[in-house]
């Protein structure tokens, strides 16, 4: 919350370099000394060693330089690595496999570190449990920012060595509409946040975490934004083809080739604004007889019938709208529960992770239903 009015362009947070926790911090610590010795055996990723560093500093208690920061961190998270199997199954089907992959990644990172911890970090060995490591890993994954690549030969090059924890800055919440710039300023040797819009006294100040659609926010940070204006659902070409079954196999192949050549297969999405005009363009191409590459551009001016509320629609436009309705109806029917059932479950659920799983999938369904209502309104 702003303690005073803030002007656009002001730096609101400046965190000195010696407060940052990065690969450089670790390599200059005792942990870094042990990692250098171990590097002939194996090298760990930036995420692994930062997680280890957090656990070592947490074990020190008040004697740790970072104790005030560590004390401010949450004890648990609602990211998928904390989900039970039941909670994973409650996620939207499109997220379930990705969420399970995140749990596998965590388990692999933990198992990979066990020999090193047992051999080189006796003070951590008795407390190096999966749950403890999951906490540290989650702190890093949900709060990490980035600096210039460390490029240390003692760490793995499987991923960039850029991850950095920035105390205080990571307390600022996300908003998809936030306008702020943040990064390391070499002139001031500080990690800075500069707002690009004004705030009044007592306003809550936000930044954007950079991952704007709810699916990414859910996977990476464990939350979603209700009626997120940046949210969208991807639509596959195969789904569009299934909505126009009357097209012959030969015609389908020719039209798919035409769509690739014309560059029409990008941004096949549904958002809170409805079905994208690219989806409607593809459906119109699929519904139009005798179309070739030269005639495709003529579709663009009226490629989205939703923008032509008072105009008479061609038979191809009507077919495209019917196919879009079919697409949305099938998507909604593919879920095991309805929006109403999800909302009833949300009133009873006790687990924060289950609340996020059910809430995020219900939000996805609301967006699909909204798009369907827009099509029906413009019929």
TrEMBL record:
Cited PANTHER family: SET DOMAIN-CONTAINING PROTEIN 4, UNCHARACTERIZED PUTATIVE METHYLTRANSFERASE
Molecular function GO terms recorded: protein-lysine N-methyltransferase activity
Pfam families given in the database record: Rubis-subs-bind (PF09273), SET (PF00856)
Top-level taxonomic group: Eukaryota
InterPro entries attached to this UniProt entry: Rubisco_LSMT_subst-bd, Rubisco_LSMT_subst-bd_sf, SET_dom, SET_dom_sf, SETD3_SETD6_MTase, SETD4_SET
Signal sequence, start to end: none
Gene symbol of the encoding locus: LOC109479825
Keywords assigned: Coiled coil, Methyltransferase, S-adenosyl-L-methionine, Transferase
Coiled coil start-end: 318-345
Residue ranges constituting the SET domain according to the UniProt record: 1-210
Gene Ontology BP annotations: methylation
This protein's name: SET domain-containing protein 4-like
PROSITE patterns: SET
Organism: Branchiostoma belcheri (Amphioxus)
């Amino acid at each position: 919350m702003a303690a005073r009015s803030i002007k656009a362009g002001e730096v609101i947070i400046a965190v000195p370099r010696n407060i940052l926790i990065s690969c450089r911090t670790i390599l200059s610590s005792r942990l870094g000394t042990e990692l250098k010795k171990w590097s002939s055996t194996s090298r760990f990723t930036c995420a692994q060693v930062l997680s280890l560093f957090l656990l070592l500093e947490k074990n020190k208690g008040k004697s740790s330089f970072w104790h005030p920061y560590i004390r401010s961190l949450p004890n648990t998270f609602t990211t998928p690595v904390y989900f039970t199997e039941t909670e994973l199954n409650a996620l939207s089907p499109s997220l379930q496999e990705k969420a399970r992959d995140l749990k596998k990644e965590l388990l692999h990172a933990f198992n990979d570190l066990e020999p090193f911890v047992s051999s080189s970090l006796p003070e951590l060995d008795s407390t190096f449990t999966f749950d403890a490591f999951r906490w540290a890993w989650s702190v890093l994954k949900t709060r990490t920012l980035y600096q210039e690549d460390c490029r240390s030969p003692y760490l793995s090059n499987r991923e960039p060595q850029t991850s950095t924890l920035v105390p205080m800055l990571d307390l600022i919440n996300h908003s998809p509409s936030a306008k702020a710039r943040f990064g390391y300023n070499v002139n001031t040797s500080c990690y800075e946040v500069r707002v690009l819009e004004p705030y009044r006294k007592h306003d809550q100040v936000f930044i954007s975490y950079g991952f704007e659609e709810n699916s990414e926010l859910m996977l990476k940070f464990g939350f979603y934004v209700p009626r997120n204006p940046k949210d969208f659902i991807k639509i596959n070409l195969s789904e569009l083809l299934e909505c126009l079954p009357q097209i012959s196999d030969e015609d389908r192949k020719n039209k798919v080739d035409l769509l690739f050549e014309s560059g029409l297969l990008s941004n096949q999405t549904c958002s809170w604004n409805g079905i994208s005009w690219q989806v409607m363009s593809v459906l119109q191409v699929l519904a139009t007889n005798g179309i070739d590459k030269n005639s495709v551009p003529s579709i663009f001016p009226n490629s989205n019938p939703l923008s032509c509320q008072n105009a008479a629609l061609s038979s191809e436009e009507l077919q495209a709208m019917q196919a879009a309705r079919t697409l949305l109806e099938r998507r909604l029917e593919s879920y095991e529960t309805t929006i109403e059932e999800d909302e009833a479950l949300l009133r009873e659920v006790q687990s924060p992770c289950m609340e996020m799983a059910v809430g995020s999938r219900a939000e996805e369904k609301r967006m699909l239903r909204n798009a369907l209502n827009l099509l029906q309104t413009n019929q």
